[in-house]
């Protein structure tokens, strides 16, 4: 029975169809039904009966035909029973991490070790059935196993679906060459509540911790991405007949064939340029799995099953889908990649793999989240051993930074690894990131030269002199160093870890306003720079360090206030994080809180600047739109404000901590000599470098109770 029209009274009838065919405008309630329907729009009939020479579009139609065609009964009798059909690829979830060996008598345990999970299956039984007349070298038994499940799509389960015997072995290709809104933004009084920080310190995971929207919103993004990818897929299908080969219908075949070769690839990869990126990622993963250094975090063993799982997870369609999730759901939270000039085909495979993992982590599909964890350590290892990341290359502020984009992307990839491991990884991974990987990242940033992250005065340049890609590269470097400092401050605030960066070394420009960074053309970008940062603006002569030092003064000028308000929420978030860094230094010092005046000045000035920003740039106007805006479309989600819109809560936490330090600084110790091993290590937080954020959450809960 066709599944395109569900029976009355079925659960599906309660939902309105939301997946529409772009060719005939038919609508379906499930996207897999839409993908199967697309097959009716092609004229190809690749499934041929070798008895009557009849041709069919779909494998299930041919299978039914064989039961009535002369000679079909004998072939049908060879159908395998359930225990004989070892499904090497689990079809219940379409999950790449579900590869396992099937036993006819016992199911695989759920807690099976990853190495066992990716162990090669036993050799398939031999068959004498002739396959000379079957399409693409498939056997009759293969066709008997090609189900009509709605999961047989271009986007769900196995990547080894449609194989092409004419495509060369993938591993023989050359390796990589050079090449919920709780407080309004416009709040007049930042002293509200710590609701976001309470949630942030109570949960783990990127979606639960950051500003990633509701599950329904992420489902809408997924549906939009499916439509976009499907449209591109249809275009590729229409161009494939020019290659002179038979084209399969969009109904994907399940890879349950005993004779399928793991070295063969889906036909739709043949003219997909991203397949080369998939290959590059595969080679890098194979390298870190087969050549493990001592104490490597990679525990997988290389096998053909693991190879297939890697090809599936980093398949071209998955890369597109995961990067779609990255831009729409994650990018606003950590926005250091310049989307308008980002090119997947020119990007380093390391940054592409890292971005894909983040996208899979924030995907609304649970199998994507689980599959991503399989590759966490592999991608971490290949990112931190990358030659571009470890090369001794320095920049000059006056040089051409755009030609060094690969180095910037190598550092971006390392930062993204720190993100997903710290919020999605195991406790051991979180500790490794804080203590080792992030320290290496900071050292690499210093090797590049933090002072090199500066802009030219573009407002003095005419449009014909303005180099958009040069601006994008410099802005990416500035934002990358800003986010490295912000992650360092996050470790200070939430893990009570001493900072690895000092404010005095951050002598670089601050990030330009979001309208400049989000401009989709060179003309728009140049215009926005002229509008927000004219040639005589203080921005061109002000560094992050200078701005923070001015913030700590009691006589902050009006021009400086307006400049900092114009630069937007990301820079204001960085400044309030700098206040936290200074508070840590003061509370870690021996003696009373003697330098409270600069901190009090910074807190007072920051509050006034945030209020000025809120009144000048009200919420609801791009790019200061939030995830809760009912009018925002999935394609515009990447332009919204991320979690740093909650900067007032960071300010409030710093204010409360400074007040407590001031009170503690006036108290006198009971004894001149404190007994050994007695007394707190810190006046506010008692434990340093804590993986759990429990003590910070307890502090926040205490502050909130006190305010109530």
From TrEMBL:
Q: Which GO terms describe its biological process?
A: DNA-templated transcription
Its keywords, alphabetically, are: Metal-binding, Nucleus, Repeat, Zinc, Zinc-finger
Superkingdom in the source lineage: Eukaryota
GO MF term (any one): RNA polymerase II cis-regulatory region sequence-specific DNA binding
Per the record, the major location class is nucleus
Annotated region (Disordered) at: 92-135
Q: Name the PROSITE patterns for this protein.
A: ZINC_FINGER_C2H2_1 (PS00028), ZINC_FINGER_C2H2_2 (PS50157)
Q: Which SMART domains match?
A: ZnF_C2H2 (SM00355)
- Name of the molecule in the record: Transcription factor, fungi
- Bias category Basic and acidic residues: which stretches? 104-113
